[in-house]
From TrEMBL:
It comes from the Eukaryota. This is Small ribosomal subunit protein mS33. PANTHER family: MITOCHONDRIAL RIBOSOMAL PROTEIN S33, SMALL RIBOSOMAL SUBUNIT PROTEIN MS33. GO terms for cellular component: mitochondrion; ribonucleoprotein complex; ribosome. Belongs to the mitochondrion-specific ribosomal protein mS33 family. Keywords: Mitochondrion, Ribonucleoprotein, Ribosomal protein.
Length: 116
């Protein structure tokens, strides 16, 4: 009875085959996820399935001259922001915030040789 080719010969032949055909050589048969990565992406087709959402801002961009449209949620949000500002709960003004940071951390940024 004739013996088959050795394991090393088959292994090197498989490696050469993968190199020629441009596939990945995986002698241990480890899971690489190549099958999943070869598939088409599902995101664009899912986005095309649902129609675009229509809101007041998009309508205003399409037809800016329509003054009668009023977004109830946006007006309520603006009222809430104004109320929080009156209570002192809003974000600090940019100039004020920058000034506070400069005075609080000025000693960290000054070098001893640059102090006059």
């Amino acid at each position: 009875m004739k013996a088959g080719p050795s394991y090393n010969a088959v292994s090197s032949l498989k490696a050469l085959q993968c190199k020629v055909l441009g596939t990945t050589y995986n002698p241990t048969h480890a899971r690489t996820g190549a099958k999943v990565l070869r598939q088409r992406l599902q995101g664009p087709s899912m986005l095309a399935y649902y129609p675009p959402t229509v809101n007041f801002r998009s309508i205003e961009k399409l037809a800016p001259g329509l003054g009668r449209l009023q977004d109830v949620r946006e007006t309520q949000r603006l009222k809430d922001v104004e109320r929080k500002k009156m209570l002192g709960k809003g974000p600090p003004k940019k100039e004020q915030h920058r000034h506070i940071l400069q005075t609080a951390f000025s000693s960290f940024y000054l070098r001893p040789d640059s102090a006059a």
